[in-house]
Amino acid sequence: MRPRRGGRLLIAVGILIALLAALAAFALLQRPSAPAEKPVLMKKVLVASEDVPVGHLIDPLAVELMDRPTDSTPFDAVASLSGLAGQYTRAPIFAGQVVQASMLSSAKELADTGELASALIPIGLVAFPCPVSELSGVAYALNSGDRVDVLITFRFVEVDRTLQVQLPLKQNLPGDVEGKQHPRLVSQLTLQNVGILKVGSWYTPPESPQQDTGEQTRQSTLAPSPSVVTLLVTQQDALVLQYARKAGATVEFALRNPNDAEQVDTEPVNLNYMMTRFGISVPALGDQSLQTLMPEE
Fold first, then answer.
1. Residues 73, 90 within the same domain
2. Is residue 110 located within the same domain as residue 187?
3. Which of 86, 110, 187, 255 is most buried per CB count within 10 Å?
């Protein structure tokens, strides 16, 4: 019995569909596969949550730890809050900006370079400079961040009440006394536990050209001894230091232990104090004496 015409047609259509499906599968197999997407690497960095002006001590509450793509993150991005400890902004940081190490400076760096020195002054205090020598500066042991007591010595002399001229007056009259009046010294501990902002000048001179000889080069590279120290004091205490300087008093510093903040009471020291406390007696008049050095004018 011969197959019907409709059956043969269905068979042919099925074969054709199968061939087309096979060809489509073959074509799909021959197409290159799409490359797999590269995963985006992320890293956690600190991002400012608010604007931070220049010269401010970084507040940990002003930043937050966020994920950022590694490829687009600055190489010096700060990755932990510990990296912000004691750091000041040397450039403004805006909200949403990644915090970078190049935007920050430590207090020591600011003090050493003089950059944004005002940022290191606590609110309520001012920076006041005082001359310093090897003797008054504790043999150059002072450093930024140290704390000192301030010792001041005044030299008192008698003056004419009306003329305010140091006695004795030279009037070239019989009985006039010629000579120089010896000042009476009084020393006292004045300001206590004063912070040092910086030792030495804030000014950095430009580099000089290379010297001709090795000895000249060696001398030119030696750091000069500091001649000034900048203290952190109240406005009133700044006036005390200014008055002492203008009055020609001697100002010297005593270095304190960093853990010692105790305020002490002291007595003014003068000749009577020295003689009474240490039992010093005045020698009898005689034909000999000791040559003494007058205090520095």
1. yes
2. no
3. 110
- pLDDT computed for residue 208 by the predictor: 61
Count of C-beta atoms within a 10 Å radius of residue 214: 8
Given a cut of 70, is residue 130 above it in pLDDT?
Answer: yes
Residue with tokens 């011969």, as numbered in its chain: 2
Residue 9: which residues within 8 A CB-CB, separation 6 or more? none
DSSP, res 61:
G
Report the half-sphere exposure of 84 (CA within 13 A, side-chain side): 23
CA quadruple 182, 188, 193, 194: dihedral positive or negative?
negative
DSSP per-residue letters across 104-157 = EEEHHHHHHH-TTGGGGSPTT-EEEEEE--TTTTTTTT--TT-EEEEEEEEEE-
Q: Give the whole-angstrom CA distance, residue 253 versus residue 142.
A: 9
- Average pLDDT, stretch 271-286? 90
Same domain for 60 and 200? no
